[in-house]
Amino acid sequence: MPLSHLKHYMNELSPDRPVLIICRSGHRSAIAARILLKAGFQEVYSVRGGMKTWAKAMLPVNRFAD
Length: 66
Hints:
Layout: H1 6-9, E1 19-21, H2 27-38, E2 44-46, H3 50-56
Parallel strand pairs: 1-2
């Protein structure tokens, strides 16, 4: 979900389950992780470097149609 929608939709996430966050560069996912941690989420992970770093490392990417 876009970072701008996180506060509105965070109630759909379980604060007791791990949350993995990724964006294009890692900046917005780091912001989202801080928001979730402040909201009481226990296990939050932000992928450092985002999808740019993930793709550069040639890790698998699945693309889904909207």
